[in-house]
Structures are given as structure tokens and as C-alpha cells.
Write a structure and sequence with these properties.
This protein has no helices and 11 strands. It has 117 residues and is mainly beta. 30% of the residues are buried.
Length: 117
């Protein structure tokens, strides 16, 4: 099952972007799905995730500004990002976790988000 991320780009501070992760199969192939990001020189960190049947989980920096959502009819998981800041500049990765023995990760190719000041 492939993950295809899209929607990144250049935006001014205070602006918005919507990222979309398209799943080649069903989103329910995964136990949970979400978005991570990695800025230059920094570790990859959780932005937001959804475990089916539970409330979404957000990184502290994302709370109140970002919203994760899913559309099972078209098998996408989206990330709406509002009030963007220059420090949100990073490569954003779609992630799906599935259970095979333990929990394993599948990653999309990443989409670049650049927020100018």
C-alpha cells in the first residue's frame, strides 16, 4: 500500500496550506495514520495522527493551528495548516502504522512546506 503526499509549497507567515496523503488501498489497511515533519538539522517529529475510533493526537506546536482529517471514501488523510509560522518550514511526511508482529511504519515521499517571514 503506497502513500502519496501532496500539497506542499511556499506560503507567507500567517497563511494556510492543506496537505493530502493519498493511500493506494484503504486507509483502514493501517492501524493509524498521520503526518510527521523534519526540518533541516532536526529530528523527525509528530505533527498529528489519527488512530481509528480515537481522538486525534497533535504535537504541541500544532494544537489550535493544524487539523488532521480523513476521507475514507477517497482514502485520503489531510492536514489543514493555518496560521503558519517560519518555524513550520520542513519536509512533511505522511505515515501509516500497521500491525505485523509489532507495529511497523510505512512512509510517503514527503512534501516540502516553506513559510516565509
Amino acid at each position: 500500500v503506497q502513500l502519496q503526499a501532496s500539497g506542499g509549497g511556499l506560503v507567507q507567515a500567517g497563511g494556510s496550506l492543506r496537505l493530502s496523503c493519498a493511500v493506494s488501498g484503504s486507509i483502514f489497511s493501517y492501524h493509524s495514520m498521520g503526518w510527521y515533519r523534519q526540518a533541516p538539522g532536526k529530528l523527525r517529529e509528530l505533527v498529528a495522527s489519527m488512530t481509528w475510533g480515537r481522538s486525534p493526537n497533535y504535537g504541541d506546536f500544532a494544537k489550535g493551528r493544524f487539523t488532521i482529517s480523513r476521507d475514507a471514501t477517497v482514502n485520503t488523510v489531510d492536514l489543514q495548516m493555518n496560521s503558519l509560522k517560519p518555524e513550520d518550514t520542513a519536509v512533511y511526511y505522511c505515515n501509516g502504522k500497521y500491525i505485523a508482529g509489532g507495529i511497523s511504519d510505512n512512509w510517503g515521499q514527503g512534501t516540502m512546506v516553506t513559510v516565509s517571514s
